[in-house]
Amino acid sequence: MAEYTRNHYIPNKVLKNFANIDNNGKYIINVIDLHEETLRGLETSRCFYENNLYDVKNDDVKKLEKDLNEKIEQPFYKILDRLVNEIKDTFTITRAELEIIKKYILIQQYRNLKNSFGYSENWDSSIVLSRYNIKDDESPLDFWKREMQTILDNSLDDLIRKMNLVGVKQKTMNIYTGFLMFVHTCDEFVINDLGCVTERTPVKVKFSPEEYAEINEKLGKELYGAEGFGQTAKMRAETNSEYMDNYFVFPVSSDLAILVVDEFWKVAYINSISGEELEKCGILPSPFLSKYFSLPKNDFVNKKLIKKPKDLVKYKSSQDKYTYQIHELDILDTIYINNLLMNETHRYLGFRTKEAIMPSIAAYTMKAKCGMENVKNNFDFVVCEKNFE
Fold this sequence. Notes:
By secondary structure, the chain is α+β, with helices and mostly antiparallel strands. It is built from 15 helices and 14 strands. Strands 6, 7, 9, 10, 11, 12 and 13 form a seven-stranded mixed beta sheet that branches. Strands 2, 3, 4, 8 and 14 form a five-stranded antiparallel beta sheet that branches. Strands 1-5 form a two-stranded antiparallel sheet.
């Protein structure tokens, strides 16, 4: 039981990819603590965790933690080792491996410490999607764990088609319909305590608030069988706060990251929709995707049987193959990704080498000093040499 006490919300195996090995063979990662304003080297096994974070009310209180390891982490690590240790211009995976990666990415959006805080101290039952499914005798934290267990116990297909958890279904659809990209840097990525970040850009709604509410209410009922989506959409239209999450970034080592890109950009690319046309529709092009974009090359086992789009589902195989280009980022694009990660850090930020991440720290602090909007965190203290142990 003791071995399951320390529950990492960023897996130790991933943290090791951001660490150096000291003379005693220990993996040491540099960790910035925004609350205490400190920076120190820590063993990866002793950071980015909470004791008993995933304990459940069950005959086996450690079931969720065990299942996270057995059903998600261990299968994902086999793919991760191949990706990290065999860096080439391309990376090929099977459909079965693609589902493992997407399920890891899906569960990582739930398991982080910020979500734990949101489901406990910052819970607002009037706005969260969880309100549709939480039981009267269930605490928000217990429901959070039930959502994660549901993800672990079901395929992506079943999460969309058979499960009725609205929040899980919405997040799953975003991941399921999105496509992967892989990026490499000769500099260094940081990793925050969410394990990921999204590039979010504003969208100008072209409909009246009432029309937009009606459209979203209809979609909510069709996709999730739930009401109330229209009211939220109307508020976003009235306050000009609608947005698009272009992609999620998941750093998996100090020089590699996985992106899950929204399906919209695939449609825009295939249909050759220009940046000017997007802006006329109220959508700002992604500065990152405008420079780096590629779709995987597919090799389907039953390709001779696939004649039309619906055949893709009918004749899909777990051994279908997807080959991805690994994009090489320059230092400015690495800084851009790092600044996104820094901005959404809840408390802890990890990295391998001080010198390598200082340009990202400097760029972020400069944004704050220039009064740029939406700069959420303070990294000024990191620049001061005396704060480094």
